[in-house]
UniProtKB/TrEMBL annotation:
EC id: 3.6.3.23
Record's protein name: Binding-protein-dependent transport system inner membrane protein
Entries under CDD domains matching the protein: TM_PBP2
Matches recorded under SUPFAM superfamilies: MetI-like
Stretches that traverse the bilayer: 44-65, 85-105, 112-137, 157-181, 232-254, 274-296
Matching PROSITE patterns: ABC_TM1
Family: Belongs to the binding-protein-dependent transport system permease family.
Amino acid sequence: MIPTQSAPAAAPGPATGGATTAGRSARRTYAADLKLLIRSASALASLIWLLALILIAAVFPLFITDAANHQDLALRFLPPFTVDHGLSFVLGADSLGRPILLQLIVGARTSLLVAACTVALSALVGTVIGIVSGYYGGWADTVLMRLADILHTVPSLLLALAVLYVLQPSITNLVLVLAVTRIPVYLRTARAQTLELRERVFVESSRSIGASDWRIMAKDITPMVTPTMRTLAMLEVANVILAAASLSFLGIGLQRPDVDWGMMVSDGRSYLSVAWWVTVFPGLTIVATALAANLLSNWLRAIEDPTQRGFFVKPAKRTTKTARS
């Protein structure tokens, strides 16, 4: 005889299983992702470029900062592609005789640090607020969305210019200003997904077994929102790098002795006709890094969407041979 009390005891199973089944598309194994990455030449090249930059920016500035800032007017505007004065001058020298290559490496640390901190802070705050706002709704959701609309209508670069003009330009202030301007991007995206997810069956199942709202948001909704936020964060890395470089180019961003790629472009713009390398090399580095972040974000989006996967991932070669007629 089957006990009549067994149905309530088994209720937690479907809720947990439903959430697990619904989240399988967002939790891909590392092995599967690696295979897809190898089959995408653009994504693989982008990842190698970004990882190389991160490694170089993390290690080399510890040993070359003094050499990068050393001024030698005898080497002023030394042309590139010469090793007569050492490998550090292979990309030439700027108007004060500082090696461009070492300046690029030190600038990579600053540029990537600003981008990483800005994206992490804005993604964390925006995602949390977006999930809470979309789940509860009501007047709090209305107020938060109106604030997000106001921030979204004001050009982020203009807002950063105004704030940094009043405050002292520094890495901390630059990160805070850029993070505030990027929060609405994550907030609106997380809220839109939460509005749809809160009506799913696995969320209703969690409610039926007495799960709290905070547990539902943490265990059921957040894992489903994370893949989209990951893709968006990678795309925002490119936007933040370009924004920080623009502020430094305009003279409102970082100031010496700190150095980033935008500052290097700004320093060399007056000498573009006589020393093109002072501006071109940091400019190319900015373009290559932003492009790599964009391509990698496109790949992350493609592996989550089978309809777009063919644009970024080559199909696997068939191993079966057709019989000859």
